[in-house]
Write a structure and sequence with these properties.
Layout: E1 7-10, H1 14-24, E2 29-35, E3 49-56, E4 59-65, E5 77-82, H2 85-96, E6 100-101, E7 106-108, E8 114-119, H3 120-126, H4 131-142, H5 149-156
Parallel strand pairs: 1-4, 5-8
Antiparallel strand pairs: 2-3, 3-4, 6-7, 7-8
Helix pairs in contact: 4-5
Amino acid sequence: MPSITPCLWFDGRAEEAARFYTDLFPNSKITNVIRAPGSGTPGNEPGSVVMVEFTLDGQPFAGLNGGPQFTFTEAVSFQVHVADQAEVDRYWDAFTDGGEPGVCSWCKDRFGLSWQVVPARLLELLGDPDPERSQRAFNAMMSMTKIDLAAVEAAVNSG
């Protein structure tokens, strides 16, 4: 059976990114570092890192040092499903350290990659069978950058 591995294009920072991500996520590690051969490859000096293979909590990834031709956009992001506000804070703070906040749980890390930090309770509140409560949860979420679960709960229960 074939497997799917996201390959992330970096401009010379693939190993740095892999170390950042594997330090941040549990059960993660760098599994292989591929270096340019002695004769080098286009855009890579001999011995420089061309690709880094790593796993994030069991999910394989590859980081390619492809050069400046392509950059990340919000068209592709990774969702990090977390249990509680403490985990929201931990991941959000790590991603936005050198990165930038976005709206309603989105942010970019220092490499420009987009992430969504999504607590399980937020999804429960957004899926509330009462459409008014669900709408209040949605409106609260849309007014935030980092998700504040207490504020979303308060909004949901204010009606």
